[in-house]
Amino acid sequence: MLSVGFRALFRREVLRFVRRPKNTFMPPAITNVLYFAVFGLILGGRIDQIAGFDYILFIVPGLVVLGAISNAFENASFSIFHGRWNEYIHETLTSPLSYAEMVVAYVAASAVRGLIVGVIIAVVGRLFVPISIEHGLFLVATMVVITALFAGFGIIGGLVARDFDDLTVMNQFILRPLVFFGAVFYSLETFEQSWQIQISLVNPMVYMVDSVRYGLLGHSDLIGVGILPTPYTEFAPLFALGVLTAATVLVLAIDVYLFKIGYGLTD
Amino acid sequence: MPPAIETTDLVKEYGDLRALQELSLTVEEGEFFGLLGPNGAGKTTFINTLVGLVRKSGGEARVFGHDVEAEYRQARDAIGLAPQEFNVDRFFPIKEVLMHKAGYHGVPEDEAAERADEVLKRVGIYDKRDERFDWLSGGMKRRLLLARALVTDPDLLILDEPTAGVDVQLRHDLWELVTELNEEGTTILLTTHYIEEAERLCDRVAIMNEGRKVTVATPDELKERGTDTISVRLESGVSASAAADLETDLGAYAHEVTTTGDSLEVRVDDGGSTAPQLLNDLEARGHEIADLEITRTSLEEIFVDLTRSDDRTVTRSSASSADGADEADESRPSEREQEGVA
Fold it and tell me: Where, by residue number, does the polypeptide cross the bilayer (chain A) (predicted)?
């Protein structure tokens, strides 16, 4: 898989965002300074602890997920769509790279951007509150999977979009609402009605935020609300990671299929 | 060795629009092959089918024996394409753009850098290697497209109207360069609107119209298919009745006789061999010859003649009625051209 061609495309994709930190890394850093300052310090000081954590610490995992997956999605969708718009994606399409190599290179580079942004947000959070990592390996695995998943969605978005407004719509009106209702700023355990929890569990973001929160803070709402029956309750984070991994594989397979049939790419 | 390009009954349909109609074409390895045709003839669609930017609706297409869909990796690896459109990565300096392209074709980074320098020198824009595409002049952009096609060291170089809109100097530079490449063994497929270009460079040309192959021949063979015009100025004018007589008398070898005052134009197959007989015939009828000129048929005239039709740009499959007539639709050609399909 790691052919010279694959590495060349991966390198090109990474260089594209690395060389433009003002456009790619500065915005999430500044935005999250504002989040932590307003939600964490100003409002958080008036909110009781959630699940045993200060509010500012509780929201760190959610903000990391929000930044990481948004950037993974944006990077992949922009890269594909901009390449289509200016037709330079033809440089890739007319090459001997396999469709799987093309997709994995785009996804991997976008996931890298998501991971870097995730780390930046965690570092920003660390400036406001001490953070220790409870389950490092699990955290890394989850971050890799969810950034790859959203990079995979980004590929689809980039292929489906007909203009730049479509990309904005996807990010602002689909992705962000799902993330904000994905228990970034609250715990599922704050819900008093079981139907509220059941509705929340339909939102895939809940599993991503919860998994990262488990990796970072060691707390999982999914264990608390008991999505798995006893005696498997404690395996809820692993279960969530398994489902997310399966979803990622499925989305990447769809990406490869779309490349193969030339959806949005060929006449 | 299999042919560089071999297509059999190649079809491309856009809904009910047929851009390629059962196109069968063979380009031998090492050939300099020209593709001529009016706008909308299907030249770019044909090329894009070979490189994977257009998916064929039917038929077969092979590049050096590799099916362009089933064995797309081998087929694409053999091709270097310089398209009409400026579809270049704007994010990177042009040297890096070339390195990336070479990399996609499996060329390691160090070698890709060397190749990029080499082709930039070859097309004469090495000193612009650190510039981005948008900062180049139109001519330099055209040179870069050629450099990008060459950086992968292709066995088949496809040039889609490479000299469209470029100045005379650049056109001659490009001609020299592609001739060198062809002499070095690279197969070249050239589409062009410039008949002179095809006549000067190509071993063989295919003339396309409405997605069909009209003919394939060498430029000389094509010219032989045309007619010559013998223009004769007589010492005295020709009366109407004498003109009518001439038309009848010269009918054995003249396709057309036109008389205007003291001038006579006779269209024949071969002007050189027919002129003496024409002079004898005119003198036998009492006409004194003041001047004579033979105009050879240009390839351009033959091209226009071969591709002349009431509607030259669009053919619809739904129009394939019982008598095989093609339906005209004048509203669509511009749309297809805007989409880069034409």
Answer: 25-43, 55-73, 103-125, 137-161, 173-191, 238-259
3-state secondary structure of B96: helix
A138, A84, A79, A136: which is closest to A112 by C-alpha? A79
The full set of domains in chain B, from first to last, is 5-223 (3.40.50.300), 226-295 (3.30.70.2470)
Q: State the DSSP code for B92.
A: S
Which of B14, B55, B105 faces A5 most closely, judged by CB atoms? B105
Among candidates A73, A261, A102, which has minimal Cα distance to A161? A73
**Number of C-alpha atoms within 13 angstroms, CB side, residue B157?**
29
Among A75-84, A196-205, A229-238, B228-237, top mean pLDDT goes to A75-84
- Say whether residue B184 is in contact with chain A using an 8 A CB cutoff: no
* A contact residues 224-263, partner B, Cβ 8 Å cutoff: 261-262
Beta carbons of B104 and A262 less than 8 Å apart:
no
Residues of chain B contacting residue A104, judged by C-beta atoms under 8 Å apart: none
Sequence-distant contacts of B195-201: CB under 8 A, at least 24 apart: B195/B36, B195/B298, B195/B299, B195/B300, B195/B303, B197/B34, B197/B163, B197/B171, B198/B34, B198/B36, B198/B299, B199/B299, B200/B175, B201/B32, B201/B34, B201/B175
Mean pLDDT of B217-221: 87
> CA A72, CA A158: separation in Å to the nearest integer?
12
Give the whole-angstrom CA distance, residue B116 versus residue B114.
Answer: 5
Q: What percent of chain A has pLDDT over 70?
A: 100
Dist CA A139 CA B129 (whole Å): 43
Angle, to 10 degrees, between the axis of helix A99-128 and the axis of helix A236-261?
A: 140
Which of B81, B99, B341 faces A267 most closely, judged by CB atoms?
Answer: B341
Query: Are B107 and A4 in contact (CB < 8 Å)?
Result: yes
Whether B317 shows a pLDDT value over 60: the answer reads no
Rg (CA), chain A: 19
Per residue in A66-106, pLDDT (tens digit) is 999 999 999 999 999 999 999 999 999 999 999 999 999 99
- CA torsion, ordered B191, B193, B194, B199, to nearest 10 deg: 50
Nearest to A267 among B54, B85, B91 (CB): B54
Residue B309 pLDDT: 56
Contacts of B253 (CB under 8 A, 6+ apart): B268, B269, B274, B277, B278
Q: Is the whole model's pTM more than 0.90, yes or no?
A: no
Place B37 in a pLDDT band, splitting at 50, 70 and 90.
confident
What ipTM was predicted for this assembly?
Answer: 0.90
Angle between helices A26-35 and A99-128 (to 10 degrees): 40
